[in-house]
Amino acid sequence: MLDWMRMHFSGWVVIRISGYHKSALLNLALQEGIDFYDIHTLEDGSITARVYFRKIGRLRHLARTAGVTFRLHHRFGVLFFWRYMKKRFMLPVGFLLFVAAIYILSSY
User: Is residue 69 a contact partner of residue 16, using CB atoms and an 8 Å limit?
Assistant: First the structure.
């Protein structure tokens, strides 16, 4: 439970690793202390895994060393939700106005 909360508040991403030496990247990352979660091998030979967002910088250097590439597919967590909501300021304001209107109209 604590791992899930930590992952959600610090932010995590789903990456897709492709290249010839995918297992070399995983081994290098584990030696550096980068943990992967939910590792799956896809039909085309690439690997998807979850990793903390703050570990991506170190993972890029390791990917260059191993000769593989990876792409970010999905981003999850409070950090990314906050960035999304900062760009759309009127969405929470509209929600609060809607709740206030329902509260006021329900009293009549």
Answer: no
Gap between the Cα atoms of 82 and 7, Å rounded: 15
Q: What does residue 78 show for φ and ψ, rounded to 5 degrees?
A: -65, -35
Measured at the alpha carbon of residue 3, what is the angle toward residues 76 and 41, in degrees to the nearest 5?
60
Q: Give the strand order in the sheet containing 12-19.
A: 37-41, 47-52, 12-19, 68-76
What is the spatial distance between Cα 28 and Cα 13, in angstroms, rounded to a whole number?
19
Written as six digits, the tokens of 51 are 């990793």
Classified as helix, coil or strand, 43 is coil
Q: What is the pLDDT of residues 49-97, one digit of tens each?
A: 988 888 888 898 899 889 898 888 888 877 777 777 788 888 888 999 9
Tokens 């991403």 map to which residue? 13
Instruction: From residue 17, give the alpha-carbon distance in Å to each of 4, 64, 80.
Output: 23, 12, 22
